[in-house]
């Protein structure tokens, strides 16, 4: 089997207007769809995360197309390694990995269609019938707005909710509305130095969060992440902003962002 063509489509999808409003909403509908065509008629579908810069990511994919044409798509790891080496000067971080990740998804889609297996089986299989999930909220302007959205999530049946606020009052009101049986997480998107992050982490103790995500800048300051983890008494999740290959202890690839979003064991740092 050989790749015969690669089509890249930047999308700007209007979202349904919701209240309360969030400044983040405008960028959510901008993504990239990648189609990889083969000489057997099988087409692989991938998606590249491209928040804010879809045309730049499309340009990277276009530059990589000549290396894809004629390649065997049934060996995704071989193709991706070849592309990563060819794009070594720019492809190990940021836009380059956004492009590679979308291509990677499309290649695995092809392999699953060839073998007539879903992706989870290709990756080793699982006996699980159900997987826990959570709803990830936008960032809102005021604590009452957070309370409104949390209440709406509970009405919809969600049992785990991730917040994106950076103030304690919003977390406090979210816990009050959610009650003790709902799991809450908090992603703050890298706003603080290690000491400010530690102070905030300690202040979160009464609200029993499952984890605090991305508390320090820069996001790949593993020593500071470990400092907050050890002193703050709360699990630290990290990896979304560590968009490069072989981030120490955080895994090599994630199907969309090449980062691993999980509570991270930082005891070795």
Q: What does this protein structure show overall?
A:
There is one protein chain. The chain is of the alpha/beta class and 269 residues long. The chain has two domains: 3-120, Enolase-like, N-terminal domain (Enolase-like, domain 1, 2-Layer Sandwich), CATH 3.30.390; 135-264, TIM Barrel. It has helices at 54-68, 76-86, 94-115, 119-122, 143-155, 168-178, 194-203, 222-232; strands at residues 3-12, 30-38, 43-49, 135-136, 160-163, 183-187, 212-213, 236-238, 262-264. The strands form two sheets. A six-stranded mixed sheet has the order 4-5-6-7-8-9, covered by helices on one side. The protein has a three-stranded antiparallel sheet with strand order 1-2-3. α1 (54-68) packs across α3, α2 runs antiparallel to α3 and α7 (194-203) packs parallel to α8 (222-232). The longest helix has 22 residues, at 94-115. The N and C termini lie far apart (44 Å).
């Amino acid at each position: 089997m050989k790749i015969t063509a690669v089509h890249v489509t930047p999308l700007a999808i209007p979202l349904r207007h919701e209240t309360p409003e969030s400044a983040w909403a405008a960028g959510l509908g901008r993504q990239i769809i990648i189609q990889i065509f083969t000489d057997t008629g099988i087409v692989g579908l991938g998606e590249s995360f491209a928040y804010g810069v879809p045309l730049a990511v499309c340009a990277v994919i276009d530059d990589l197309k000549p290396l894809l044409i004629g390649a065997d798509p049934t060996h995704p790891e071989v193709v991706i390694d070849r592309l990563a080496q060819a794009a070594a000067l720019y492809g190990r971080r940021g836009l380059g990995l956004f492009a590679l990740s979308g291509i990677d998804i499309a290649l695995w889609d092809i392999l699953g269609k060839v073998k007539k297996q879903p992706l989870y089986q290709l990756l080793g299989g699982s006996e699980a019938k159900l997987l826990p999930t959570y709803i990830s909220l936008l960032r809102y302007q005021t604590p009452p707005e957070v309370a409104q959205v949390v209440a709406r999530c509970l009405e919809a049946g969600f049992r785990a909710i991730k917040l994106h606020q950076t103030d304690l009052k919003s977390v406090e009101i979210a816990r009050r509305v959610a009650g003790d049986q709902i799991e809450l997480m908090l992603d703050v998107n890298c706003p603080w130095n290690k000491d400010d992050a530690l102070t905030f982490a300690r202040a979160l103790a009464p609200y029993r969060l499952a984890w605090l995500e991305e508390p320090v800048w820069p996001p790949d300051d593993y020593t500071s992440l470990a400092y907050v983890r050890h002193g703050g008494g709360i699990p630290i999740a990290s990896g979304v902003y560590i968009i490069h290959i072989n981030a120490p202890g955080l895994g090599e690839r994630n199907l969309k962002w090449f980062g691993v979003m999980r509570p991270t064991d930082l005891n070795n740092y």
